[in-house]
Amino acid sequence: MIKSIKVKRPVMVKTIVTDGFKQQAKEELNKEIRLIDNQIMQLELQTKQIQDQTGGGLSQYFGEGNPDQTQQAIEEILHRLQQMGELKQELQFQKDNIDHLSLNNVIVTGSLENYVELKPGENLYEKFKQAEILVKDGVIQDIID
User: What confidence tens digit (pLDDT) does each residue in 85-102 have?
Assistant: First the structure.
């Protein structure tokens, strides 16, 4: 009886840069930036609501007027706002860099996983070499296994 095992291995997704890819990538980044803007607005509103509340009004969230919990909640929201701001900056940076990509260059755009079957006597390094999928405008051009 031959024993075998299936294990996950990474598969790199590479994309050929086209005008269509650039446009789609910008649109996706714009959507993410809008979502972050909405989250930032919600967090800012939440901070304002907490600050505007007085002792009795806060009891529904923190118990009878506990200023330490109020301050802690505000600090958590401010920390989250900072994280959202940093993420927004990173996405904007990525969006700005899209214009600098040369057409027909190949760039790494993601990673997937697939399973590979390993059996005794096989070369592990050959089985685990980096698999790749090459994509152009969303269409798979080649699979390198």
Answer: 999 999 999 999 998 999
- Residue carrying structure tokens 């994309």: 15
Q: Longest Cα pair distance anywhere in the chain, in angstroms?
A: 74
Confidence (pLDDT) at 65: 52
Q: What is the pTM of this model?
A: 0.69
| Interval 46-62 mean pLDDT | 61
SS (H, E, C) 24-60: HHHHHHHHHHHHHHHHHHHHHHHHHHHHHCCHHHHHH
Cα gap 59→67, rounded to integer Å: 11
Strands (E), 49-130: 106-118
Calculate the alpha carbon distances from 131 to 46, 111, 117, 121, 126 in Å. Answer: 46, 10, 14, 21, 10
Q: Please, which residues have CB within 8 angstroms of residue 133's CB and are 6 or more apart in sequence? A: 11, 12, 13, 14, 112, 140, 142, 143, 144
Higher pLDDT, 95 or 69: 95
Q: Is the pLDDT of residue 56 over 50?
A: no
Which letter does DSSP use for residue 63 in this model?
Answer: S
* Sheet of 131-136, strands arranged across: 106-118, 5-16, 131-136, 139-144
